[in-house]
Amino acid sequence: MSPETLQQLAVLLLWIAPVFLPFVIHPSGPNRFGAPHRTEGFEAAVRNGFARAFDFKGRASRGEYGAFLLLFVGVYCAAALVDGAFGLSWLYVAPIVLLVPYISLTTRRLHDLNRSGWWQFLVLGAGVFVLFYLLAQPSVQPLRQSLRRPVGPVRMAGHR
User: Where are the membrane-spanning stretches (predicted)?
Assistant: First the structure.
């Protein structure tokens, strides 16, 4: 084989290998990233995304991630439309400002799936589709099971 062929095979392997990672690496056991986090509604999810913009610890629900993704894509599309109509390319600053909160929220969403935030590097190749597949998966521990109340009467400390 020629060196060019080997180089082409190596590049092809770098693009194809990430597609199979989620099927080979399965997280097992209880979620190691803490208790589940729950937000209600679009506005609360976006507010929480900005409030925890530099927080790469903890977990984020699928709804919270979806709401912020919708905001991110909407802002980008609005900037592209205004740039196309009026030539105001400086409006692309708005999606760039949303990039850090989006990355931290994606990290927390991957934590909710019991995976490391480093899985975001799949976006550098053909693994972008695999990453979106992973982010759309339900939580490892459903909220209903982890937030159960105790059954029976609750006793206060010091009372009989």
Answer: 6-25, 65-82, 88-105, 117-136
Question: Using one digit for the tens of pLDDT, what is the confidence trace for 108-151?
Answer: 999 998 899 998 988 887 778 888 888 888 887 654 454 455 55
What three-state secondary structure class fits 34? coil
Query: Residue range 39-62: average pLDDT?
Result: 90
Distance of alpha carbon 88 from alpha carbon 94, whole angstroms? 12
CB 115 within 8 A of CB 134: yes
CA angle 25, 30, 33 (to 5 degrees): 85
Summarize the chain as % helix, strand, coil (round to 5): 60, 0, 40
Q: Provide the terminal-to-terminal Cα distance of the chain, rounded to the nearest Å.
A: 82
In a domain, residue 114? The reply is: yes
CA–CA gap between residue 20 and residue 106 (Å, rounded):
20
Domain that holds residue 51: 33-137
